[in-house]
Write a structure and sequence with these properties.
Order of helices and strands: EEEHEEEEEEEE
Radius of gyration: 13 Å
Low-confidence stretches: none
Largest sheet: 7 strands, mixed
Mean pLDDT: 94
Strand content: over 45%
């Protein structure tokens, strides 16, 4: 069974940085795509960044140039480096895995999800 565990969330001020981690099993890490999503209160879950096994990455326009998704194969861990954080980045962040190479940032293609980690950015 796939298990994904996020960590690294916290509270920062505008302009600050955080790095989120998502530890997974070897089996989960072999999925075609892994991604980060976020959900703010009262809003729909949105894709933030995706990294697929063919090396392609996909970023939401709102985070392009500020966030970087990466993975460490030796540790079965997915990362999200977040810089120049803004209050509108405040949300619960989730990592997810998909066995579909074209999954991109569409949450419908993601089969397994972590429990989430909270990021709060204050002005």
């Amino acid at each position: 069974q796939a298990q994904l565990a996020e960590s690294g969330g916290g509270s920062v001020q505008t302009g600050g940085s955080l790095r989120l981690s998502c530890a997974t099993s070897t089996w989960t890490f072999s999925s075609y795509c892994m991604a980060w999503f976020r959900q703010a209160p009262g809003k729909e879950r949105e894709g933030v960044a995706a990294l697929c096994s063919d090396g392609t990455t996909d970023y939401a326009d709102s985070v392009q140039g500020r966030f970087t998704i990466s993975r460490d194969d030796a540790k079965n861990t997915l990362y999200l480096e977040m810089n120049t954080l803004k209050p509108e980045d405040t949300a619960a962040y989730y990592c997810a895995a998909a066995w579909w190479l074209a999954a991109g940032l569409d949450p419908r293609w993601y089969n397994y999800w972590g429990q989430g980690t909270q990021v709060t950015v204050s002005s």
